[in-house]
TrEMBL record:
SMART domains, per database record: MORN
Repeat is among the record's keywords: yes
Keywords: Cell projection, Cilium, Flagellum, Repeat
UniProt organism field: Ornithorhynchus anatinus (Duckbill platypus)
Protein location: Cell projection, Cilium, Flagellum
Segments crossing the lipid bilayer: none
UniProt cross-references to Pfam families, sorted A to Z: MORN
An example Gene Ontology CC term for this record: motile cilium
InterPro entries on file: MORN (IPR003409), Morn5 (IPR042814)
Keyword Repeat: yes
Name used for this protein in its record: MORN repeat-containing protein 5
Superkingdom as given in the UniProt entry: Eukaryota
Length: 186
């Protein structure tokens, strides 16, 4: 099914929908592309791929503004829902240099004795055996990341050669005493 102008075009295999024009059956020109994960792309397409300027909007309010060339990112800027912009160089967010979350940077630290475990306060409840990856839960048994409503986001791939990075870097639903702790902090 093709679209001309303002009709949504459902994609048969991906569950995505498309608003825009097609040339020879491929998405072309200024378009809106809606993924089943509620992520959407608004921008230029060429030969069925992101091409030129465009923005990915994520359901949690984050966005990625970029320039693509035949489906590959050439350059771009990732901005979190709270306005924090990711800087690949000199990124000192929540590291040993400055361990504060962005909400603490903007609103100040909590009084002594009151702990803030995540940027979102209070933090989400994590299902037993799973890990909070920032945009959803990672299940090491299935190696799948779902959003916080348990809808499929992606298969967990390697990051810097480490397949199970959430096991060391994320809060988990493992109960130790009365507290949930990341495995890396046990």
């Amino acid at each position: 099914m093709a679209t001309v102008g303002d009709a949504l075009d459902p994609m048969q295999y991906t569950g995505s929908t498309f608003l825009g024009n097609r040339i020879h059956g491929r998405m072309e020109g200024e378009s809106k592309y809606f993924l089943p994960t509620e992520t959407r792309y608004e921008g230029e397409m060429k030969d069925g791929m992101f091409h030129g300027k465009g923005t990915l909007f994520f359901p949690n309010g984050n966005k990625y503004e970029g320039i693509w060339d035949s489906g590959l990112v050439v350059e771009g800027q990732y901005t979190f829902a709270d306005g924090l912009e990711y800087k690949p160089e000199k990124w000192h967010y929540c590291d040993s240099y400055d361990r504060r979350f962005y909400t603490e940077i903007c609103g100040g630290l909590k009084p002594a004795g009151i702990c803030q475990l995540t940027n979102l306060d209070p933090p989400r409840n994590i299902p037993t055996g799973c890990y909070d990856c920032g945009d959803g839960f990672y299940n090491p048994d299935t190696r799948v990341i779902t959003d916080y409503s348990f809808r499929f986001l992606r298969n967990a791939g390697a990051l810097n050669g480490k397949t199970h990075w959430p096991l060391l870097c994320s809060r988990s639903g493992h109960l130790l005493g009365d507290t949930l702790w990341p495995l890396g902090l046990q």
